[in-house]
Design brief:
Length: 266
Amino acid sequence: MGSRRRHRHLGPGQHHAQVRAGLPASPVGLVMTTKLSQIRTELRHRVAGLPAHSALPRERDLAEELGVSRTTLRQALRELLDAGLVYTIRGQGTFVSDTRIAKGTSLSGFTEDMLARGLQPSSKLIVADAMVARDADASDLGLPEGSLLYRVERLRLADGAPMCLEEVHLPADLFPGLLVENLDTGLYGIMKDRYHVQVTVAQQMIAAVVPTRRQCDLLEIPPSAALLEVRRIGYDGRGRAVERAVSLYRGDRYHFSLTARRGEAD
């Protein structure tokens, strides 16, 4: 004996509730969202590589180049405008904001600096190996020549754009097993959490330098660009030299901010 299937009629608004509860969304909407995300990422990457106050191409030309509608492009540009990455001048166009990061004398790491500015930090590990301390390394770290060091070279990025190339040398006896750690994360965090070593004071020297071809390739800058080189020796609370680092910052993305005070005798 067959059973009769009972049909329940949906009341007003119930169909939409089912859609919100998990029925497939419109493919057109998904495509548009994905396209906008791609264009936003592409524009952020382009803007990060341009000098401050550079003009972006005309809206029509940029939309054609990226293969999107002008409506989608305007939405992506509006998000960059809201983020402070670009600014507009009526009748003239859209320009790159001066978003160089002010690096002061605090000992915050790259990851902390970027997060504080609403940027997403990431790292690309280039070299992680062991080496023997010679000359400057041995002298700066207060070690006998021939002591074992760990070398970590990383490219530091913010929102996917190269910002800094750093090479750090660390005494191996203070950080056993360091090379098996996830060095794509913040190194200061690993030093503190895993080894209970924290840099509390540092000596730093800052200079403007001309990039090598390798540095240009990694930082995605032209040979004519200037780099800010920061050489640092970091000490822990016991006065031990625990790191020797050389960081190369893109001059178009960073400036250093220092505060000077006049002494009483002056």
